[in-house]
Recover the amino acids of this structure.
């Protein structure tokens, strides 16, 4: 492996690690706020694919895959607020939260599996 290739691979690995750490970690206070909202009746939306959802999901979650979210905004506006979004790593839930906020929906981003209620 050439030095240039090694440097590129190392840099990409560091960037991937940083993104993964950033998306999986949630401030303990923010996590507590989100879990409290869920205990008070907030709607938990898992934005993973149906197949991922069927393989296991947080108790009480409904499945609205990210690619369907825009079409389901009206239905989500009728759900108890806030809407709490989650996915596998936090990447899709961040995108979902942004989309829902732009649609005027109060939303909290739980991030990925590492933050799911136990």
């Amino acid at each position: 492996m050439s030095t240039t290739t090694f440097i590129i691979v190392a840099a990409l690995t560091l960037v991937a690690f940083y993104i993964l750490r950033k998306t999986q970690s949630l401030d303990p206070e923010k996590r507590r706020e989100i879990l409290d909202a869920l205990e008070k009746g907030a709607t938990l939306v898992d934005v993973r694919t149906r197949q991922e959802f069927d393989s296991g999901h947080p108790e009480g979650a409904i499945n609205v895959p990210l690619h369907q979210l825009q079409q389901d905004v009206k239905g989500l506006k009728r759900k108890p607020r806030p809407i709490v979004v989650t996915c596998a790593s936090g990447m899709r839930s961040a995108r979902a939260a942004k989309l829902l906020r732009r649609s005027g929906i109060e939303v909290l981003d739980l991030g990925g599996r590492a933050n799911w209620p136990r």
Remarks:
- Helices lie at 3-24, 28-39, 50-54, 73-77, 91-102.
- DSSP finds five helices and four strands in the chain.
- The CA atoms of residues 63 and 103 lie 19 Å apart.
- Residues 26-115 form a domain with the Oxidized Rhodanese; domain 1 fold (CATH 3.40.250.10).
